[in-house]
Amino acid sequence: MPIRPENRRRYPQNWKSISYKIMQRAGNRCEVCGVRHGDWGWRDERGRFQRVRARPFIEAGHGKPPFYTNMRWPDGVVREVKIIKIILTVAHLDHQPENCADENLMAMCQRCHNLYDINFRAFNRHRCHGTAPLFGELPIQVKDPNKLFELLRANQEGIPCT
Ligand SMILES: [Zn+2]
Asked: Beta partners for 70?
């Protein structure tokens, strides 16, 4: 997720080296679903990433992702897909840019970062209304949803209701 201009001042000056360190820790993979930084591919109907080799597309004159193309799906049917490039960003689990403790930072792909943010807000809303949401109601389609759920819980407990 790009840093919003109004939040830029909340990041420490050495944010670049902090996020680099987290990317190294992550082995350049999303720490939620495991996809690798820079990979090209598409997501199937369940959100699973299907990697493709970039070279044939480059040689065929495609520009950089995102772009649409036809691919054979695991069920054998050819369908149009959107080829994307995985870009990892470093997420603050408690949504506080000032908190750059290692355990508050996680390298995430676009999808996991979005899902985390959506769920963070939804979880907090439900919690503030005194109803614990059922996990199944949340739009989570990551490889290890329990891990994401644990993270959400751990990061909601210290946050006051607004
Ligand atoms: Zn991911």
From this structure: 80
How far apart are the two ends of the chain, measured CA to CA in Å? 24
Report d(CA 32, CA 147) in Å as an integer.
7
Distance (angstroms) between ligand 1 centre and the Cα of 113 equals: 7
- Residue 54 CA to ligand 1 center (angstroms) comes to 19
How many whole angstroms separate alpha carbon 139 and alpha carbon 64? 29
Task: Give distance in angstroms: CA of 139 to centre of ligand 1.
Answer: 14
Which residues have CB less than 5 Å away from ligand 1 (the ion)?
30, 32-33, 109, 112
**What separation in Å is there between the alpha carbon of 47 and the centre of ligand 1?**
10
Q: What is the pLDDT of residues 65-106, one digit of tens each?
A: 999 999 888 788 999 999 999 999 999 988 889 999 998 899
Query: Is 50 exceeded by the pLDDT of residue 54?
Result: yes
pLDDT digits (tens, 9 = 90+) for 21-44: 999 999 999 988 889 999 999 988
The rounded distance, in Å, linking the Cα atoms of 128 and 76 is: 46
How many A from CA of 77 to the centre of ligand 1?
26
DSSP string, 89-107: EEEETTS-TT---GGGEEE
